[in-house]
Design brief:
Blueprint (H helix, E strand, L loop, with lengths): L3 E6 L3 H8 L17 H6 L3 H9 L1 H4 L1 H12 L6 E9 L2 H18 L2 E9 L8 H21 L3 E5 L5 H13 L4 E5 L6 E4 L8 H7 L5 H8 L3 H6 L3 E4 L2 E4 L1 H4 L3
Helix pairs in contact: 3-6, 5-6, 7-8
Amino acid sequence: MTPVFFGVTVGASLVANASKKGLLPEGLDKLRPDDPRQEELRRAPREPLIEYAAQNPRECCAELNTIAAVLEKWPWMGSDLRFSLYASDTGQGVLAADVIGAAICRVARGKCGGSVKVVKGLGREEEFGRSLLELAAAIKEDFAAARREGRLAYLIASGGFKPESTFAVLAAYLAGAVGVFYIHETFRKLVELPMIPLQLKGVVVEFARGNVDEHALARELGLDVQHLEAVGLLISEGGARRLNPLIERLL
């Protein structure tokens, strides 16, 4: 069978559901990122939560609910599975990702392994815009690497807020994802979005290579140069304009 890669956006539903089960104090899933109690979650024992998640994948959190549904429908995907979990740099995000990562391999029951990627600023209002690009860049790099290894690469997009899911889906498709899975909040059933072969406009690539200037880029995109700076596509460095380095990582 063809080996598989899952990129997984991580939210806080595991923390909320574990609290309801008495495995964590209530309210920790609603902490602000700067709340000192975030440290309680960073230090929380993992094993009881891993046992809960592995034994109850369909109820413990949105992420494992989706993965379990995928593996029930296509069991062969769990025979050789790699994954990356994309978490916010908060206690909730790190705890949820640690637990989900350990539980995935118990659910897959095949050759399985992966890692947690903590995205700086993803849980913080003042850094959220930049962190979404960081998330997109990390996903693009992981999916491109998975495709080079010959893996079928899918995004599990049930976890996290809608802006995270949006950027994650776009980045995954740019890198050659063959599909996106999530559990629809209304249908309560597994939904698979088909492969969409996306590409950044050629003029963006040409600008990054130094073949056209910022004015040609702006004309092609239908905006002026100042607007391209305002929306974060361009940045100024030493009196010159260049492509945002995070967007360069998506090329």
